[in-house]
Input
Amino acid sequence: MTETAAGELDDRVRGRSWTVRLDPVGRGSTAVRVSCSRPNCAQQRLASAADGRQAAVAHLKAHLKAAAAPRPQAFCACKAESCRGHLDPGHRQTRAEPWRCGGAVVLAVVADREGRWWQVVECCSRCAAATPGAKVVSTAPAVPRPPTGSPSRTDRTATASAGLPQFSAPPPVPSGATAEPGRTPRPRPAPVRRGRPTGKIAQRVVPPGLQPVVLRDELVELGDLFRAYQQRAEPDLSLLAELQDRKARAFSTWAEVTGDGNLRLEAQRAEQAAATARSQYLNRTGRGAGADGPAVDRLLTTPTLWEHARSVLAYAADHSPLPGPEARLLVLMLTLRAAHSGTGNLVGQDIAALGLSDPHRLLDELTGCGWLRIPGTADELLASRPENAVLTTVPSLLPRDDGSGPFTFGKKARAKVSGWAQKVTSDKKLRKAKATPAARLLALTLATRATASGLLGPEGQGIARDPLAACVAVDPGELQHLVDQLTTTDWLAEATLTDTHLVGRQSERVLPLTCPLTGA
Output
């Protein structure tokens, strides 16, 4: 027989369905009862709900493991139970068309959110996808599709006997028409939507009547492309930069057409996103260094972060309250910890890693002059460990009344730049050679004053000697000794210090720690 109503079934095999339930035993008891609708499954009694859920899930898994694979010729088990999808449209005002099954037959598990029951149903993949929380555990093997065209009743009968699934009943004969003997009416073609394309981009609905048409189509297509990009397994920064460029142009035109200032701001944000993505792509592929530049995966990945690192170095050089390279290095590291909000956590190991000769004295002097505030003593700070980090405060870095401060970067950028500086100063070869704080400070400075290929100075022309000595807080005559330390530790591959400049290049091993000069 054929399907004549939502509750009547066709002549194919009914899909399997069984339920495992978890019910309380009675009032005043924490015990629960596990039952299964499959025949010959005895009830289980457990001491607690947690044990009951574990037993119910184990029982369900055992059934699934022992159950046969989904049968291609089965019709949906939920159809026999008159689920919402299969209800006649006359009983549901919200559905304009009757539900039609489709896809391969699957075994799906539907679980109650409160963990009170678990149901296994053999149904079509479309019903499984439409059931909230359903999880497909196995799928029937694929079967060949019937030939195209309008098969006769005999062909359809042969198809059914061959085991091919027929999820939808044959379309009814239109009112007032009669079917030809031996033939079923031709199925009505699906309606063709001729409306204007609509879509969403950046959480905005593209108006169907937006003019010009080419702008509307571009916005709809861009929305689809961005959603497709989000589904990629691996990012493609070059493609993302191109999409952001197109979005910036489209939103700029959209803003001109509608006069909406928010669209213009969105276009500006897209331009910035395109520039950032393109910069990251060039940096990661090494193409930003020019034709001769090596491909380097740098710790700080964008020119913006490189400029942030330079700004903190310059600030520490201009605002250090104590003389000497050791004080300068400590001030720099404390500034990096408190750069965003004026406060930052610190432990003793952070200071010990700087190789200072007398960190206790420096901390006392910094707190004594008011540049640094700590809740306890210098000894307590030096003895602190990660589980009891000390909250330090640098008053000059606290935000002003308007919320502004000396730096413009946020928490994430601060953490990245601070991690970069710690990575440089604690470089393995510098530690093994017991490099002085002045040598580590010079390494930090040189890392921000070289080209992408490692040549020192803008365009590899070298760095002026006297300003470089001032940045490291040493006399110009002491620079040669520091340069020798960095050469010995393979930080500098080539280095020549003249009366006016330091010329040379950094070794390839430290290129990932460098912040190339923009445009160099």
